[in-house]
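Annex B. Sample input.
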Amino acid sequence: MLSARSLFQEILDDDEAYRLFCSIAAGGEAQGGWENGRIAALMPDNRRDLAPKAARHGADEDKHGRIFRALLRKRNLEAATVPAAADYTMLLERRGIGLAHDRLRAAEPLTEEDVITYLAHSRVTEQRASEQMRLLCKHFADHPELGRAVRMISHDEDNHLAYCHEELLRLARDGHGRTIQRILRDCALAEIAVHRDVSLAVMDRMGRILGWPAPKAALLTAGIHLLYGYERLIGWRRMVSLTMPERRDALGGPVTEYA
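Annex B, continued. Sample output.
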């Protein structure tokens, strides 16, 4: 039976497919770590209270990258080159979503709108990350190889999402509500298109590695397009709503290390 669990089990059971999966995840997390580190360094004076939280966000992402690299080492696998079509963070940047890397490499402090852009972009992408990690936890939380890693990462992603909700609501109270909603909507619509494209690219590569028959590949491709259609019609709205989270000050403490 074709299911999320059976698909990931196939990937888990094949070294080359698993190598690609962990390499894509590690690369994306490392990129997020760098971006958040630069954002923390460039935080404007009137938002300096956010700098430690952005730094914690980046440190968590760095940790996740190390976790995926450690999973590779446990199998004596080297990281694979991530195909350009599967580079989620760079594809988002090319669509003008989030803060451009050229902006982050500069020494000039961020503006108020830059901070909103950062938090809105994070709110959308952390929604995706939280959902994906919860799915992995649902099926593999007790797995001897993956369980501890997916539980820790899922907890962190939920913290990141809570942080974005709380800080965006604070900025909305400061009078930025319309700007926040505009940027959130733009980010969400771009993200669902990038997620579709990356999913198609990854499934194509996985299908070739695992030797999927044409009907199975076609069914998975159709499923990706159906999900995009749903998200384009109505699903994007879950990425733009803002509610005060139960986890308050979710990034106010130290990074939980993974030994």
